[in-house]
């Protein structure tokens, strides 16, 4: 994790009062000029074979 990302995470923790320990990695998206972002869920079904189980 870069120093910049660590700094961003600390700011998020301070402002929200939440821990970043169990959070997802930071994601940045660029939709370009005129791009559109629609709310959605990122998910996969077990039947898709995308799950990785570690023991």
From TrEMBL:
One of its GO terms (molecular function) is procollagen-proline 4-dioxygenase activity. Transmembrane segments: none annotated. One of its GO terms (cellular component) is endoplasmic reticulum. The keyword Transmembrane helix does not apply. It comes from the Eukaryota. InterPro entries: P4HA-like (IPR045054). Keywords: Iron, Metal-binding, Vitamin C. The keyword Amino-acid biosynthesis does not apply. Gene3D superfamilies: q2cbj1_9rhob like domain. This is Uncharacterized protein. It comes from Dibothriocephalus latus.
């Amino acid at each position: 994790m870069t120093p910049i990302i660590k700094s961003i995470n600390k700011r998020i923790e301070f402002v929200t009062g939440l821990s970043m320990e169990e959070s997802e990695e930071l994601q940045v998206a660029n939709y370009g000029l005129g791009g559109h972002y629609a709310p959605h869920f990122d998910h996969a079904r077990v039947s898709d074979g995308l799950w990785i189980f570690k023991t």
